[in-house]
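#lab-general

N.A. 3:47 PM
ok so I finally got the sequence cleaned up, no stray characters, all 732 residues accounted for. can someone with queue access submit it? mine expired

B.Y. 3:52 PM
send it over

N.A. 3:53 PM
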Amino acid sequence: SLYVSEYFSQSAQKLSFYSWYGNAKLFHFHVPEDTVLLRWLLQASRGKGPECTGMEITVHFRHGAPPVINPLGTHFPANATVRPSYNISITLGTAVQNTTFVNVSTPAAGDWFIAAHLPQAAGRIEVKGFSTPCPYMFQADMFVLRLTDMPVLEPGVPMPHTVVSPAKPLHVKVFVPKHAAGMRFQLSSCVTSEQRACTVRVLLGSITLPQSFQRSLTCTGSINCSLALDSPPWEKWLQIMVESLGTANASVSVEMLASFTVCRPGSTSSFLNFISLNQSQAGARPGAADSSAPAAGEAPRNASGQRGSCLQSQPVVREDLDVVSVRYRLLNGPSVPVSSLSPSLLLLNLNTGMDSGGSLVVNLLLNKTSVGLANATVAACVSAASPVLSLNATQNCSTAFSQGYPLSVSMSSAEAMLIVLYPQTDDWFLSLQLLCPKGQGDCPSAEAKVTVFAYLTPCFNDCGPYGQCSLLRRHGYLYAGCSCKAGWGGWSCTDDTKAQTVGTQNLATLLLTLSNLMFLPAIAVAVYRFYLVEASVYTYTMFFSTFYHACDQPGVAVMCIMDYDTLQYCDFLGSVVSIWVTILCMARLKKILKYVLFVLGTLLIAMSLQLDRRGVWNMMGPCLFALFIMVTAWVHHGAKRRHCYPSSWKRWVFYLFPGITLAFIAISVYAFMETNENYYYTHSIWHVLVACSVAFLLPPRDKHKKPWAWSQKLTCRYQICQNDREELYAVT
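B.Y. 4:20 PM
back already:
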C-alpha cells in the first residue's frame, strides 16, 4: 500500500474572552477521502508583557458542522437537540507557548471544524488605550495520512486479504448503494502464516466527533463471524479496518464478504421520479407537478402497493431564500399521507457545504380528522446520511453509524417541533409512520395526514426580541450566531435567568437620558457670562447624548430619532468638543485666537473620530493640548501681572478645585469602573459629574460686561434699520 501525507494550515487567530458564539474563533478544514490517520497540531501562545497571566484555552472539535458549545451554562430553546461537543483544554502557565497534538484514526471524510475561546468575559468595559490587553494567539494545523490505493470490497464477492503484521492493519472500503436497508459483513477463513488460530479485530465505519458510532467486531479462530448493520449511510464509502491481535511476526489471511439488503421504494413515488421532478420543477409552482406524478398523493391509499415496498417517498423541492436560509416545499402539498405499512420518507438536502451554519427546524402538525383510530400515534425520525426504516414505539431513531432525533404526534398532542442546531453537512431524512396499539384490526387500512413545515434559518426565531442575529464569516464559510442583550442569554436569547425586567430597562433609559439635563446649569452659566459659543456646544452635546442613549438601549425602552451610527458619532463629537472649548475658555485667550482654535480643533477632532471613534487619544489628545495652551496662557498672565493667576483664592477654593475634582472623579468612573452590569448608573454618574465640572470651571465674565449682556445688543435695532433706509434713499 502507498501512503501519502498531506499538510493543511490556517493563519493564527487572536482569541477572545467568551460572551457569545462570535467570540469563539473557528477553523474549517476538509479531510480527503481514504484518510487513515488525522493529526491536529494545536499551537497556543500569549504575549510576554506583565499584563499576561496564565490562561486556559478551550478547544472544541466537530465533524460536519461547527461545534455547538455552551461555556456559560445557559439554557437552549425548547425543542432544540443538543449533544455535548468534544473538547480539550490547553493551559498556558509560565510558558508563553503550548503545543498539543490530537490524533484521530480512520476519520470521516468531509468538513471538520475547530472552535477555540478563552474563559468567560469579565464584563468590564475597557476604554481603548487605557489598558493593554494581553494577546492570546491560537493556530490549528492538520496532517493527514491518506491511502492512495485502498482496496475496494465488491458487494456479494468474497475477497481474500492478508494482514501483514499488527503494526500494519488492513484497510478496505465498500460503497453503500442507495436504498440499502441493511448490510451484513462476514469474515471467514482466518488463519495465520504459522497455521495457527488467529485473532483479529474489525472496525467498521469512520470516527466522527463529538460522538462516534464506529462498530467493532473481534473474530477468533477460523469460525465465521459476522456483523449486521441497519440503515447504513447511503451513497457513501464505508471504511473497514482489520488489525491482527496476534504475534508481531505472523501475518494473517482472511476472507471478507459484504452483502446488502436493498429497500424497494414505492413505485408511484420512487426516488428516480423525485430526482426528475427536482430537476424539471425547480422553481415551479406546487401544482405544476400534478400532471407528471398524479398518483403520488394517492399511493398510500393503495395498500397492496405498499406491502411490496419498504418506504413511500414524497417529492420535496429545496428552495434557497438567502444565505443559510432554505425552505423545503412538498410538491404534492404540505400534507403527507402516513400509514402503518411502510414509512413515508422526505429528503431534506443539506449537502451544499454552506448549510451547516444555521438551524434546521422541522414542524409536524397532525390533522385530527384524518386519523380513524383514536389511540394511534404518528412516529417520526429525523436522521442524517440514511433514513430510519423501522419505526417503533421505543423511538430509538438509530441508524448504523448515527443517532437520529425522534418526534411524535397523536390525538392528544397534535403538534411537534424539532430544532437541530448547526446540522451537519449531509442528506437529511424525515421518516414518518403510523403506530397503532396492539389489537387494532383496522390499523393496516388507517391513514393519517401530517402537515410538514421544514426550513433552514440562520437563527431560530431571529434571536427573539432581546437578541440580534449576526452572520459570521471564516474565510469563505458563513455561519450565524445570536448576540443577546438586556441580560438575556442562551443560544437563541431565550434564557431569562439574568434578564432585566421592563422596569429596570425603563430605569436605565431614564437615568442615561435625563442625566444629560445636568448640562442645563452649565448652559445657563455660559449664557449668563456671555459665552454663547460654549453654550451652543453644550446644548448640542446634551441633545445628541440624550437621544443617542435613548437609541442605544438593549431592551424594549428604545427610541431612535435618526440612524444609530449618526447619533453615536454626534454624541462622541459633542463630548470631546465640549471639553476642548471649556479648557480654551479657561485660558482667557484673545477672542479672535480663541474662536480660531475652536473651529480648527473641532475640525481635527471630527477627523480623528472618523478614523477611530473609541480611541482614548481622541479625547486625551485634545484635552492635553488644550491644557498645555491654558497653562501657557496662565503663566503668561501671571508673569505679566507679577502674581499668581487666577489671583483670587476664592476662585481656586470655590470653583477650580471643585471643578477639577469632579472632572478627575468622572474620568476615573468612565475609565475604570464601568461594566456591562452597572453601565446604566455609572455612565449616568459620568454625565452628571462632567456637566457639573463644566459649570464650576467656566471663568467669570469680563468686568466691563454686565450679566445677560447679550440682550443689550438688540437695543440698536431701530438705528440699524434707520441707517439702512438712509443709505437706500441716498442711492436712489
